[in-house]
Amino acid sequence: MGNKSSKKKTDQKKAQDYPDPKVYMWPEEGDWASVKEHSEDVLVVFPISAACTPVMMLAKECGLPVDFCGINYQTDLNGKVALALNPIHSAPFLLVFENGDPQPAYAINDSLAIINYLAVKYANMIPDHVLPVEAGPRGKVMEKTQFINGVLYRSTAYQYIYPLIGLMTECQYDISKRDFAMEIVDKWCADSGSAFLSGKDKPGYADFALAAIHGTNCWTRDESFNVAIKWERDLLPKYPNMKKCIDALLEYPAIKEVRNVTIGDPQVTNCPSTETWTNFVAKQAMGNEMPADGRMFKFDAEKIPHPNWLLAPGMEETRKLFDMPIKSQLDKAEEEEKKELAELEAADHVNEDSKANLAGLLAKKHAHHEQHDKAEKEEKEELAELEAADHVNEDSKANLAGLLAKKHAHHEQHDKDEKEEKKELAELEAADHVNEDSKANLAELLAKKHVS
Ligand SMILES: N[C@@H](CCC(=O)N[C@@H](CS)C(=O)NCC(=O)O)C(=O)O
């Protein structure tokens, strides 16, 4: 990695020393050699992303020589080349090119890591009100930025927007910080001494972060979204200082410009601008209601208590109010599963019983057959004896004929009975196989239930 970061501010090049930054899509097959005259630092972005837009605003506002490269999150973001450079695979990431080499030397993932890099490399181009150089003021800007980017983002957009784009549902701990986070940011806006969080007549980096979170929270603005909480309708009006700051930010040129960056044909590239997404695409691309049963938290309170305050003595009853829904959902799911298991196990007993009956029946049938075979053998012996006695006297012939006819009739009947019995047995045994199959199915079902 190069050592440009150690240069003194006064040694650094000025904006006019660099070629104008460009906007383009990730090259086909990640072939960077095919991208002519790109900048040394290429910021890979989704132009609607709350993590990407503040960095883009910083670059625009300060005229940094940083290209914007759109990336299709469905294909290239997880493609071989991008993953090799950016295994964390989130955007933004910054590609750093060194010594005119056509391939990137390395990539830096994460918006805050990237701004730290940019702040060092382009220190003379970044005004103090955007990212102060001095430790104390810089620390305060980063405090606001991280809070907006973390707590405010997670307690709003993660809760009311992300479930509608198919991302996981929210964390109760995060949602419970919503009113607390709104109050904190509102107070910062009230106390800043200017229209912006920077306290100056121009926005700073924390302002860019706020403008970006606002951008994402507006995705459900359209009336086709049937959701309980909307940022602009239900939340923002309660925090007039934040609202005023956001209104000013939306009028600011660099912010306006970034909100209108579309890269390529959005139908193909998946890189529409924030404005295009919010006003046109969102209502087609997103669900218009919260996923069923996905949200049972209580959020209609006058003020949601901070999750950590709920641990304080005396807060037990209030805690139950806010903690109960997710627990009751779990209990309900567990109860249903137990019921299902009991039903399956009961069905198994029925099968066991019918197996026992079946075994009894089969044993009886087999005993009957053994008895029958024995009787048949004895009858045959009797008949042979009678036939041997035949030559003894002619008189007994007539008797014998009658007797033989009877015996043959009996045998015929018996053969018929035996055939029927065999058929019956075969049917019983077939039924038993069905039982075996259903037992196997049942066993599998039970095993699955026990594993999950
Ligand atoms: N803390 C990160 C968050 C980055 C992030 O979550 N980016 C999202 C878009 S807003 C993303 O790229 N998600 C896709 C992925 O992680 O694969 C930052 O500030 O850069």
Quick rundown:
It contains 15 helices and five strands.
Order of helices and strands: EEHEHEEHHHHHHHHHHHHH
Over all CA atoms, what is the radius of gyration? 41 Å
Share of residues in helices? 55-70%
The beta-strand count equals 5
User: What would you call the structural class?
Assistant: mainly alpha
Taking strands numbered 1, 2, ... along the chain, how are they ordered across the largest sheet?
Answer: 1-3-2-4-5
Architecture blueprint of SSEs:
Blueprint: E1 23-25, E2 41-45, H1 53-62, E3 66-70, H2 80-85, E4 93-96, E5 106-109, H3 111-121, H4 135-155, H5 157-160, H6 172-175, H7 178-191, H8 205-217, H9 231-235, H10 240-250, H11 253-259, H12 266-269, H13 274-285, H14 316-390, H15 395-451
Glutathione binds at residues 46, 49-51, 73, 89-92, 110-112.
Key words describing this protein structure:
disordered N terminus, Glutathione S-transferase Yfyf (Class Pi), Chain A, domain 2, Glutaredoxin, binds glutathione, 5% strand, 452 residues, five-stranded mixed beta sheet, 3 domains, mainly alpha
Can you give a write-up of this model?
- This protein is mainly alpha-helical.
- It folds into three domains: 1-126, Glutaredoxin (3-Layer(aba) Sandwich); 127-290, Glutathione S-transferase Yfyf (Class Pi), Chain A, domain 2; 318-451.
- The protein has 15 helices and five strands.
- It has a five-stranded mixed sheet, covered by helices on one side.
- The relative contact order is 0.08.
- Glutathione (GSH) binds at residues 46, 49-51, 73, 89-92, 110-112.
